Amino acid sequence: MFKIEERSSTVDSKGKIQVELHRGAEYPHRLNFYDKPPLYDVSIEEFETSALDRLRILAEIESSAARNRTWEETKTVTSIQCEKYLPLKSSNALGVDKEAQRRTDHLGHFVLRLAFCRSDELRRRFVKAETTLFKIRYETDDSTERESFLSARDFNWIAVDQAEKEQYQKQLLSYLGRSEKESDKYYKVRWTRVPDLVDKRKVFLKGGWAYVPSREQSSIVYQEFETHLERDLLATSRYMPRLDEDTRLGGILDNLSQGFLAGVSSEWSAAPGDIGEGIRAEMVDDLAAKHFPMCMRNSHQRLRADHRLNHFGRLQYGLFLKVLGLSVEEAIIFWRKSFDRINDDTFNKMYKYNIRHSFGLEGKRANYPAKSCQQILTSGGDPGCPYRHFSPENLQSALLSTYGAQGLTSTDLYEVMNTVKGGHFHVACTRVFEMTHSSSGVKKGDGIGGGESVTHPNQYAARSMELAKAQEEKAMMVLA
Amino acid sequence: MSDKVSREILEVFYGRLYPFKSIFHWLNHEPIPSDLFLKREIAFNLPDDVIIRYNSFNDYDEFKKQVCKLAPTRFEIGPVYTSRPRDRKTARKGTFNPTHRELVFDIDMTDYDPVRTCCSDADICKRCWSFISAAVRVLDTAVRDQFGYTHLLWVYSGRRGIHLWISDKEAMALTDDQRKAIVSWLTVVPKDETKKLNVRFGSRTLPASLQTSLDHLAEIFTELILHDQDVFASDKGFEALLKRIPDARVVDSLETQWRSSSSSSFEKWKDFKAEIKHYAKGTSQRAALMAAMEDIILLYTYPRLDENVSKKRNHLLKAPFCVHPKTGRICVPVDPERIEEFDPEAVPTIDQLLSELDTVAKAAEHHSDWERTSLKPYVDMLDRHNQSIMDEARKEKRGASADMSW
């Protein structure tokens, strides 16, 4: 897929080969129809990071749709995310490497095509998210730049001449909205290219031709983008089995599509020395009741009720507590107290090693990160993610008994259960977060700050504790 | 199940009367079996609700043989798939998908129950057929004029409805999204009858496509709704009408008037129009009421489509010339130009056809015995329709080198 382009190689003093590409301005426009694949060498890191960054944005778009955000909200949230992970500046922006930005955008798109062409489901979702992203960029694009982008590509529309316009003047006028006067220009395309406009009865139809006013021109562009991408993905999927591929890529691609299916992409990582520093074993009960997401609450309750927890439960919960800020000494105390039906000997023999191991003090001494939502969701249950792995009845009663004290009522459940039914587990979790933190001023759609969805249990807990702290400080201020 | 038609009768019907060749031409668009036929799903409905799906055939002989062998109560036509339906299990997972299909519409009398007074449910009479003929007029014009399709086949469904099959090349290739769009374009009466018609922005004029239909429907409305069906004569009838009027003062005045003495629908409609004239021209109240009046006409007369039939390519629909199991009537093609004259009661039944066969010379069994029965004009109609489809397909093949595609 990626061919080697003309390039010159020089060997520098250390014997390393320097590769330079000789290209002109390859990306004259901010918008891209992705007609041509990237034909240059990329490093494996670039291959992966460009895709991961793009995936974060697409996942945010998907969850926006699942959360019924309005178009304006989706646009704002996505623009914020784009700014963070995949900035793409207009051509007249100064002081930024526009070529590099556009190259990343281009590359990321094509890497994700490889990852998402494999099944109908993935293709459908990818096309939807990509088209939304394109729409957002199109709408926010500078109008003159957009003009030049449009004229650079043949959209195969026929401009309606004056005589024809006059002939159908009355009919054309009847499709315009209340506040609109006359549209100056019309473009004629087969109606099949603008089904969305036909669906809403917004264009004049004659003999199968749709007369699209210039204001709705974007519909043609979006539709073209969508059908183009659909067709290309299908073609890619047919070529996939014949891809003479580097074994390094397969893993990356698998991983990418996995993340998208679970609805999450970003690996949340707590900055070292995060808010939870210095948590002691006896504080866990209290914290669990106030700040833990459903999965960890479930683990905690089970631990308290049964005085035991299975291996994966210990691993998942233990790592979560570690990242929360429980030191190894406190962790040992915590687990020792929790397993109060066994004697010291058994504990030391069977569990202490594992606890120390998870802190990187035994064995290969790796500092294991806490499990992310993606890992928990795809773990196959037990303990798993309650939103995914509990039966609906079980989940409802569990949610009520767990969060009832924090203001979750049975009327809220309807919405949560609907999202669960739709398979948007992280959205359900995010909604529960919003509902149970409304007293701290969290509104619907805020998510865990800036509209972001929950993608990691620790992120949930950290944000919850942060909010509580802020409120405490506010209360102190008032008192003072 | 008390189906009227026995297996023996069906065997004779399929063996001697069913026009397989015409159906084959109609589905295939050319004389030699193409993908349109080879990869087409035919589903058989057997007694006791048994359905055999995913049959496909190499040619029409094989098709006929199988139908005669199974003698299904009816069979249905599905889409053209990426590979032959009968070999679908050998296709790679996820690669067996519908690609082409006639664009189909189904209008059923049951959807009109809230606005017809003569019959209800499965019953149909010549009077309520007027609803169907009004719908056919509107839909036929809309599809030809707005969407530019020309190969339209209207087929009586055997009891209380009518189907439309569109075989134009573009129509065959429509995706599910596009089918959904065309259905929305042609849907005016909301599924929930109490909702407002979503046809205009505020009280602006109607979009041109509906304005054209309205001109025709206004006449139908007077004839059918006001005179023939007399829909607003009953309390229930006029209460429904009052709910559609957006002006509280007018509603009050009309209600007291209509409650005190009974009057015909025509009188009531006149009362309503008189109320509108109370407001001076150009006032917003008048504009709103005029818009409401147009909406009411559309609500009572505009075609009501069974949208699920049209929206998905893989929806099965009963083939023309099948026998309706309850009425025994043949699902014959209907000429839209003469739809008003069509009488569902006059459509030949299977019993009638078989007795016609008995009266003609009992000589040798002939393969196109339908020529000697009252089925003939209907088969001829389909053949003429096929001729125009096949002419176009041939022209296109010849002109394939000189590409004229848009």
Oligomer state equals: heterodimer
User: Main sheet of chain B?
Assistant: 5 strands, antiparallel
Radius of gyration of chain B: 24 Å
Task: Find the CATH topology of the largest domain in chain B.
Answer: DNA primase, PRIM domain
Summarize the largest interface: chains and residue counts.
Answer: A-B, 24 and 26 residues
Q: Could you give the count of β-strands of chain A?
A: 6
Shape of chain B: globular
Number of domains of chain A: 3
| Percent in helix of chain B | 40-55%
Helix content of chain A: 55-70%
How do the strands of the widest beta sheet of chain A line up side by side?
A: 3-4-6-5
Structural class of the helices, strands and pairings of chain A? Answer: mainly alpha
Number of domain modules of chain B: 2
Task: Describe this structure in a few short sentences.
With 480 residues, chain A is mainly alpha-helical.
Q: Can you tell me about this structure?
A:
- The complex is a heterodimer of chains A (480) and B (406).
- Chain A has 480 residues and is mostly helical.
- Chain A has 3 domains: 26-151 and 226-261, Up-down Bundle (Transcription Elongation Factor S-II, Chain A), CATH 1.20.930.80; 158-217, no CATH class; 281-479, no CATH class.
- Chain A has helices at 44-66, 71-85, 98-116, 120-140, 143-151, 162-167, 169-174, 195-199, 217-239, 247-261, 284-291, 294-306, 311-324, 328-338, 344-358, 373-377, 386-389, 392-403, 410-421, 425-436, 457-479, and strands at residues 7-11, 17-21, 158-159, 186-190, 204-206, 209-213.
- In chain A, the strands form 2 sheets. Chain A has a 4-stranded antiparallel beta sheet. In chain A, strands 1-2 form a two-stranded antiparallel ribbon.
- In chain A, β1 and β2 form a beta hairpin.
- The longest helix of chain A has 23 residues, at 44-66.
- The radius of gyration of chain A is 27 Å and the shape is elongated.
- The model of chain A is unreliable at 1-24 and 265-276 (pLDDT under 50).
- Chain B has 406 residues and is of the alpha+beta class.
- Classes of the chains: A mainly alpha (480), B alpha+beta (406).
- At the A-B interface, α7, α8 and β5 of A face α7 and α8 of B.
